[in-house]
Amino acid sequence: MLLMMMMMIILMMMMTMMMMRRRKRGMMMMMVMMMILMVMMVVVLVMMIMMMMMIMMMMIMMMMVRMMMMMMMMMMMMMMMVMMMMMMMMMMMMMMMMMMIMMMMMMMIMRRRRRMRMRRKRRRMMMMVMMMMMMMMMMMMMVMMMMMMMIMIMMMMMMMMRRRRRRRRRRKRMMMMMMMMMMMMMMMMMLMMMMMVMMMMMMIMMMMMMMMMMMMMMMMMIMMMMMMMMMMMMMMMMMMMMMMVMMVIMMMMMMMMMMMMMMMMMMMMMMMMMMMMMIMMMMMMMMMMMMMMMMMMMMMMMMMMMMMMMLMMMLMMMMMMMIMMMPMMLMIMLLLLLLLLMMMMMMMMMMMICLLQKITHKKVKNNSQLLFRIRILVLSSCNHLEPMLQMFNPS
Fold first, then answer.
1. Which candidate, 145, 194, 148, places its Cα nearest to that of 45?
2. Tens of pLDDT along 18-56?
3. 40 in the Ramachandran plot: left (φ > 0), alpha (ψ -120 to 50) or beta?
4. CA-to-CA distance for 301 and 226, rounded, in angstroms?
5. Rounded to whole angstroms, how far apart are CA atoms 380 and 378?
6. Domain of life, per the record (predicted)?
7. pLDDT tens for residues 355-371?
8. Who contacts 133 (Cβ-Cβ below 8 Å, separation ≥6)?
9. What whole-number distance in Å separates Cα of residue 74 and Cα of residue 80?
10. Longest CA–CA separation in the chain, Å
């Protein structure tokens, strides 16, 4: 915690330095600092959670019920403290990020255009930034709400515990339920934090990209960046929503709790990995697009990514459904999945056509012509793809 505070102070100093003179270098240093800070936060949180889980496990084993209750109370308080602190820090960072984005936008606009066009662009930029801020705030609010909900549930559980003191067996079962709940909450919190960190990483990556492209960038590109950021935010929101839904479901399905939880964790981790991969891919694509300046392709990529995300969500949900054996829901999910796959195929086709047009520098008029082009391309590159292209054959 101390280290974190120190880091924050250094960050503030850097902010002032940046404002004063060396803008770019200050910016970069701040990025690095933020990265480190994020990682540290997550580490601290995870360590705390692990420690508490260990102690709780021990207590379960030793069946110290009274002690356990005390521990839980203490733990909740501690967790809440840490969470609130982290939330505050996150808020601060978000604000700083927003300020930086605004500053950069202003700089870019000032440098490029005269006063005539400036106002309109500035207004648009302002709108963008405001939107992003709103998103951030919404996310924060959601997290806070979730925490409050958790505390409420915990308190209610405690109350129930107090009422039924005489019946031992029930009490034990209640304890177990409580434990499950606690674990769940912790996992959720961890996931939330991961989300936050990922968001920050994305923001930082975007910023880095902006810095790199400062020399050759047009306003269009910045807009694209903003769009991408928005998309990321949306993704995050979606994931959060999913988590909430899952949490409710889990509360309902107390018997299958442990198994479910393992599944959940695995899935979430996988999701995270996938997200990261996708983001990396997007970055790569961005770089490539900068070389080629294919706006259309870029949009396609984004759409593809969105589809992928949706697909992953669907899969996840399907897993959940399978665990809970809801055939109807499963059917619906399957249908949705199919739809998504179809869409993805369409996208692929479109991208292919687009690429072909770009390579051959001619508009493709009809199907046979397209087939011909593809065939020429393929034969020039690799022969073994030929049978696959028979699918496109109109005859």
1. 194
2. 555 555 565 566 666 666 666 666 677 677 667 766 766
3. alpha
4. 15
5. 5
6. Eukaryota
7. 666 655 555 555 566 56
8. 94, 98
9. 10
10. 84
C-alpha span between 6 and 287 (Å, rounded): 36
> Is the CB of residue 271 less than 8 Å from the CB of residue 316?
yes
Sign of the Cα torsion 286, 289, 295, 299 reads negative
261 pLDDT exceeds 50? no
Give the 3-state secondary structure of 326-355. Answer: CHHHHHHHHHHHHHHHHHHHHHHHHHHHHH
d(CA 24, CA 17): 11
Round to whole Å and give the CA distance between 200 and 139: 13
Q: 368 φ, ψ to 5°?
A: -65, -40
**Is-contact 37 12, C-beta < 8 A?**
no
Please state the rounded mean pLDDT for residues 337-341: 66
Segment 133-154 mean pLDDT: 59
Q: What pTM was computed for the model? A: 0.27
CA 242 to chain centroid: 12
Which pair of tokens denotes residue 155?
């308190």
d(CA 14, CA 27): 8
CB atoms within 10 A of CB 185: 21
- The backbone torsions φ and ψ at residue 63, rounded to the nearest 5 degrees and listed phi first, read 60, 40
